Amino acid sequence: MQRPEDGAEEERMTTLGAGEYRYRVSGKDWGNLPAGWGYGSEVTAVAVDARDNLYVFSRGERQVVVLDPNGDVLRTWGEERMFDNPHGALIGPDGSVYVVDKGEHVVQKFTPEGDLLMTIGSRGRPSPPMSGEPFSFPTHVALDPVTGDLYVSDGYSNARVHKYSPDGNHLFSWGESGTDPGQFNLVHNIATDRDGWVYVADRQNKRIQIFDSTGRYETQWVNLARANCVCLDRTGDGLVYVAELYSGVATNVTGMRIGPRITVLDRQGNVKARLGEHSFGAAPGRFYAPHGMAADSRGNIYLAESSLSETGHDRYGGTVDRSQELRSLQKLVRVGTVPHHPTGPEGA
User: Could you give the CA distance from residue 334 to residue 10 in angstroms, rounded to a whole number?
Assistant: First the structure.
């Protein structure tokens, strides 16, 4: 059955957060798609380029859909099922598109039009599980904006972060299975800032871990639900956004403040806002399964939600009707003005 929604809350919940940290939520799939399109069952990643165009990476028939800031379609590619299992996406400073194909165990670099430039890894040839060698079901990729070095989170059958040079040469790796600092339990997402810090979404350990460019552990941010993805603000306001999966159990689906939600932090790890207090649901201001996230130059947030493998179809104890077409992409428009904060992680 479908979990009942509180209709009286719907209008109030179209805006999340408070004060300077307020966001108006689209509440439905964002974008002006032609009739009969749709994003497919799962949008797994989103990425924004220097012009605020949005790249939507999905497991649908059109695996890459590029939208302008108004939501109009600019182009698509990947219609030939170019990717086996789309999972992560990133736009480089030069406009290059990096994608992670979890099913093929590779990271690939494309032109904005979809021409292949580079492949890291061997297609269809995973490393042995928990071997520490790249790749075994990788999840996401980040890029140092100064050096161009790449960081790949290798999380589903490994517990590692791998660092590569801009031309795809492996430099070194770090991490192992566990719950201690520097250890991982599903490395699901990764991001970098302009000062070279590396932010790792350590999902099942319910934390963000932060490292320097050599892989040295710096600190961790806890008191999160399942930290599924992390991205950084592009306005210069020094914000970090963490999207979290529901962390309750099937007998507690009405639980408050345990996800799914987005947490807004400064780069010292101070929580500025929690976007979403209620459990999962279809009403504006509620989420199902945040899986990928990106921010544009205006401070707006795009949230990709994977509708099958990560949501109540499998995880919420049968409380979501499998026949329901779930939302895949939301836009959260910033309506509050966020003050500037100093950069660089501090404290534990």
Answer: 19
What are 266-311's pLDDT values in tens digits? 999 999 999 999 988 888 889 989 999 999 999 999 999 986 554 4
Whether 307 and 326 have beta carbons less than 8 Å apart is answered as yes
CA dist., res. 168 & res. 202, Å (int): 24
3-state secondary structure the chain: CCCCCCHHHCCHHHEEEECCEEEEECCCCCCECCCCCCCCCEEEEEEECCCCCEEEEECCCCCEEEECCCCEEEEEECCCCCCCCEEEEEECCCCCEEEEECCCCEEEEECCCCCEEEEECCCCCCCCCCCCCCCCCCCEEEECCCCCCEEEEECCCCCEEEEECCCCCEEEEECEECCCCCEECCEEEEEECCCCCEEEEEHHHCEEEEECCCCCEEEEECCCCEEEEEEECCCCCCEEEEEEECCCCHHHCCCCCCCCEEEEEECCCCEEEEECCCCCCCCCCCCCCEEEEEECCCCCEEEEEECCCCCHHHHCCCCCCCCCCCCCEEEEEECCCCCCCCCCCCCC
Q: With a threshold of 0.85, does the pTM exceed it?
A: yes
- Residue 318 in tokens: 């049968």
Q: Provide the pairing of β-strand 271-275 with 73-77.
A: unpaired
Query: How does pLDDT run across 114-147, given as a tens digit for each residue?
Result: 999 999 999 999 999 999 999 999 999 999 999 9
| CA 338 to each of CA 22, 23, 237, 332: distance values in angstroms, whole numbers, following the listed order | 9, 11, 7, 15
Instruction: Tell me if 175 sits within 8 A of 187, measured CB to CB.
Output: yes
